[in-house]
Design brief:
With 100 residues, the chain is mainly alpha-helical. The protein has four helices and two strands.
């Protein structure tokens, strides 16, 4: 948000809308869970179950943000990796009962 406000003031233009943010790299929910355990400094304890048949064909097995809209708005900075972002959130917010 801070970056957009600076750009709006300096360029006299405002990019509005909803921006899907991420790294632009496809990641699985398995990566998210492992990153959460790493943020807790714990060994992952993951129990896998079969995907229910009624959602098997339509389930979203990974996520990948399309970063083009953000890049078109002029944002060129690097993004945090999934691992770094989750570790920061777990250590600096969740473990201190600060929720956003």
């Amino acid at each position: 948000c801070h970056w957009f406000m600076e750009q709006s003031i300096s360029n006299h233009a405002f990019s509005s809308g909803i921006f899907n943010l991420g790294t632009g790299e496809a990641r699985s929910f398995n990566h998210l869970v492992k990153s959460t355990y790493a943020g807790l400094d714990r060994k992952p304890e993951i129990r896998y179950i079969d995907m229910p048949g009624d959602i098997r064909e339509t389930y979203q097995y990974y996520t990948q943000a399309d970063m083009q809209k953000l890049r078109d708005a002029g944002y060129r900075h690097e993004m945090y990796s999934l691992e770094d972002g989750v570790k920061d959130y777990v250590k600096n917010y969740l473990s201190k009962n600060i929720y956003y």
